[in-house]
User: What shape does this take?
Amino acid sequence: MSDASAAADGDAPDAGESDNGSFTPWDQDAVKLTTLVIGLFALYLLGGYLLGYGTRQQLASIGQLSILIGIFAMLALALNLHWGYTGLFNIGIIGFMAIGIYATAVLSKGAATAKPAAGSTGGFGLPLWMGIIGGVIAAAIFGGLVALPALRLRADYFAIVTVGISEIVRFTLLETEIQKVQIAGYWTGLGGGSGLILDFDPTDRFLEAFGLMDAYVGFSDTLGEQLGVGSNPKPIFDTLLYGLILFVFLIGFYMLLQRTGNSPYGRVLKAIREDEEATKSLGKDTNRFKIKGFMLGCALMGLAGILFYAEQGAITPDAFRPRLTFYVWIALIIGGAGSNTGSVAGGAVFAAFLFRGPIFFKNIVQNTFDSLDAPSTFGQAVSPITGADPIPLVAYTIDNMGQLQLVLMGIVLIYLMHNRPEGMFGHRKEPASPIRLQDRTQSKPAASAAATDGGRDQGGTDDE
Assistant: This one.
């Protein structure tokens, strides 16, 4: 197994251990990830200071960044199970996210017994937690149905099937025939092109489920007054709380995939990734393993889709175009395929620098240099270069940073492919056993003495 393909997360038995057998805090993956996230928060706080943000804007900025980091890291972990562990080239991520949130919406939206207006299609009125479970199961089952025929294909052909399936899902959501349907006396449906209004707020439902709403509102009002957040501080603290909830889910994703990867089942998945024929020769039913792995990854993608879109208030089919799928792939490539720690780090870096960063950087530059007047056309920006004046082109580039976001992502990918194809946490050796076979902290003299004692036990005494 090559170093690149053997890249995996380091939270195995020897993770965090240096070459001389000693442990340092920085060698621990949790410390690295925590430091990375804190550093990103600090950068955004500094950027907010340069923009002249007040406390309310700073908290809102950190809350939005937390949500994006949590979502992209969870999606990168789910994709890592498919690609990094099993070698399944899935580029239909957004389709499974759509299945998850639409199933949750249909199950958890308020029940409607009369034919509703466009966009306000009802549901079955189940508790949100039941709707989330239903959405995750729906995504897993749909993944299994896709996997049964698609896993007969390999590499590029499998990728074509998955992206085709995601587009089929999107066009199905647009169908007017299932925009409103009556089932068992309830009016429900997928909303068609009008989409669905989500009449449940996940943060409020979470607080109400634990009876914390009144205490939370009082706490947010008091803390908001002390921090100078201004009137109606609850939406700001809702964003921060939801980001914290996503981090809890992210930790759950990470622990689940760590245990999966280090289990006998996970080792079979990695063997399939390296050489499926050799794995079959050892008596393993590789199709069964791949279907299970694909279904688990699809379930996690469905859950991430639920968490991502549930707090937005509404969903439409146009939100499920393939672009988000490629964003997740970029995040995984940045962190390093096969590494759970790298997946989280890649998701955080992508969210902070490539997804939200360009617009944030544009605002900082324009706020700092008020006199930076950008040309209205590309020709007007390029022509002054002949006179050794690059300022118009720089101003034009910064002003159109949102449109150039994909170009920036492409440049980053090209750089990584040439200079760091294994990602931030690549080339990490996988353990050959879930248990430590030898105490590496044992010094060589002690090991030699132990060997000598063993020889005495077997062959005689000093007198001999």
Remarks:
- Confidence is low (pLDDT under 50) at residues 1-19, 440-444, 446-464.
- The longest helix spans residues 55-85.
